[in-house]
Amino acid sequence: MKLYLFPLFFVLTLLFGCSDEAESSNEDVQTTPRVVQLTTVIPANSDHSYQFPATVQPVKTVELNFEVSGRLNFVDLKQGKMVKKGHLLATMDSTPFERKVRENKALHKQATLELERIKSLYGKKLAAKRDLDNAQTQFDITQIDLENSKQDLSYTKLVAPFDALISQRLLENDRYISAGTAVVRLQDVSRIRFELNVPERILSANISNKINSAKAIINGSINKTYDIEYIEHTTEPDPVTQTYKVLFEMQAPQDEHLTPGLRAYVEVNVTNLKHHGGVVVPINAVVAAADKSFYVWRFDETTHQVHQAPVDIAMASGNLVVIRSGIELGDQVVSAGVAQMSESMLVQPYVTE
Predict the structure, then answer these.
(1) 0.85 exceeded by the pTM?
(2) Looking at 156-160, 176-180, 197-201, which range is the least confident one?
(3) For residues 206 and 244, what is the distance between their CA atoms, to the nearest angstrom?
(4) Which domain holds residue 20?
(5) Residues 252 and 288 in one domain
(6) For residue range 10-54, what is the model confidence (pLDDT) as tens digits?
């Protein structure tokens, strides 16, 4: 017997005692049917719904920075604005970078002419191999310098790497900044995420269950409900709240702009696969036997007699017991006065007027 059934066995033993005592009290021949209360066996409610407060979040948030140092010039950094991929956000004073490109072009041109001259002399055996190698090396160095300066010039423009919402401008305009300094924070809102914190006891109880449906409910001026899908959850709880972060997601709606940080509720319906297919009876219908097993008194509609039916208990919840096997959906069991029952006792179902 599993450990969590011991409390149930103890409670049932206190309530009803063992079956031997009940049987000994009914040794006399029965002449009048005993009136009993019957309960019809119903399916276990394996579906559970939970509702959690949630916060709207972007798919990702990134901070953009320049790869070079220089003086900052804003182009379009209006907070709260949606921009397309490739949209120019800010520039840096390009004058010194353009000057560096021109300088390296001139040096590279000079190195090219020098290499051609040395090659010509080397072909006539008027220059040493060492002179040719030096000219080639200088040509390669100036070519690399030119490519680097062109790349640095391209770094003076900051563009949106994806369709994004400008979340926050991090610097004031017209100031000198170092390479790597964050300038703007962008949010990818092509898909909307809902972040919620789930208590440990709920997550543990449903970790292996199937999610039937999940909906995000946004009240206020929007007042809409959206279907969402599960993405992931953390496996380490918050050390203070002992809750786990869970993420759901959906495609961004076309008719509404859901701003990150917006408050919402997420309603999740799950199926308990472990107890799926079981049946439920009142806890008062279950009797604890002397050998620590459990049974119920099943009513036979044909003979109006009751018979012991051993049952396998899955769990107890409140005043109900989930049973895996032993009885079937639609069976009728005695749910009051079980301590007075005995095998094949003649009974009469109690009918309310």
Answers:
(1) no
(2) 197-201
(3) 13
(4) 3-45+276-349
(5) no
(6) 455 545 444 444 444 444 566 799 999 999 998 876 677 899 999
Residue 113: strand, helix, or coil: helix
Domain harbouring 218, CATH code: 2.40.30.170
CA dihedral 341, 347, 349, 353 (to 10 degrees): -110
Of 287, 342, 298, nearest to 12 by C-alpha is 287
Residues 284 and 314 in one domain: yes
165 in a domain, yes or no? no
Neighbouring CB atoms inside 10 A of 238's CB total: 12
3-state SS assignment for residue 117: helix
Write out the two tokens for 1: 């017997």
Residues 6 or more apart whose CB falls under 8 angstroms from that of 51 comprise 265, 266, 267, 268
- pLDDT for residue 335 is more than 50: yes
Q: What angle do CA 148, 149, 150 make, to 5 degrees?
A: 90
Angstrom distance (rounded) from CA 182 to CA 193: 25
Q: Which residues of 145-170 are buried (b: 16+ CB within 10 A; e: fewer)?
A: bbeebeebbebbebebeebbbbbebe
Tell me which of 250, 271, 292 is where a domain ends: 271
DSSP 292: S
pLDDT at 21: 45
Q: Do 350 and 309 meet the contact criterion of CB atoms below 8 Å apart? A: no
Q: What total number of domains does the chain contain? A: 3
Angle at 349 between CA 346 and CA 353, to 5 degrees: 145
